[in-house]
Design brief:
Blueprint lengths: L12 H9 L32 H12 L12 H12 L12 H6 L2 H6 L4 H4 L14
Length: 137
Amino acid sequence: MARKPLRHSIPNKTQTYERRKKFLCTYCNQKGHLAYFCPNTPNDDFESNKEFSKEEKEFIRELMTSPKINPEEYKGNFAAWKERGETINAKNPFTKRTASSHIDRMRASLGFWKAAGAPTNVICPGSETESKHVSNE
């Protein structure tokens, strides 16, 4: 019996998409993702996270409670968005961190994320141990 070539055992993009369509999120009841990866889940457990200093927690709390910014204000005006992001990010204590992880670099620009209109579940950073991927097949 002839063996199948390796390309037959690797799923193509259509097969991967079809498999992902079967996922049903138990949080928002939408197809296409699992609850662990749901963009609608709140991530407010930063208060109990020992990884953050008091100053960092205060900054996150301030970002989360401030009103949402409409990114349409900056449509076509990058300079205005950049200025607003720099204003918000001026008090960001994460910029003082010297670690080179990608998560710390993203935390250092939280003010720009807020200026771009990111929702609170994106703004509230989880711990690095939370960001591990889970496979559910």
